[in-house]
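Ops channel
N.P.: pipeline sanity check, posting one input/output pair.
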């Protein structure tokens, strides 16, 4: 049996946000937006390749690209929060929207 890979000293959300702010200061918002677009493109490509040919190699690539996109989406939230005029944090707003959409999906499935 393969031992699961356990990464020790995981970064908390707070530590990640601090890191994103350092990255944002270093490279600026435009570079971070462009990086996000590129990562989204890479994810689409890796999904297509996995769908066409599901194997360990394409799955590893897919995992890699999902991680990249999740990191960039967290950065986008930090970026948007910086220029936001909302009272609520992006985290809470995104979570609320997810809850709304999940409940709508549940209702659709229950109603056949
Ligand atoms: Mg990538």
């Amino acid at each position: 049996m393969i031992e699961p890979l356990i990464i020790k000293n995981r970064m908390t959300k707070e530590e990640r946000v601090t890191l994103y702010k350092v990255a944002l200061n270093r490279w600026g918002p435009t570079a971070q937006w462009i990086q996000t677009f590129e990562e989204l493109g890479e994810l689409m490509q890796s999904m297509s390749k996995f769908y066409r040919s599901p194997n360990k190699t394409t799955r590893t690539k897919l995992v890699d690209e999902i991680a990249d996109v999740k990191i960039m989406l967290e950065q986008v939230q930090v970026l948007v929060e910086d220029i936001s005029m909302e009272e609520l944090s992006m985290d809470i707003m995104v979570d609320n929207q997810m809850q709304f959409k999940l409940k709508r999906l549940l209702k659709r499935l229950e109603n056949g």
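N.P.: looks fine end to end. Residues 39, 42, 65, 68 surround magnesium ion (CB under 6 Å).
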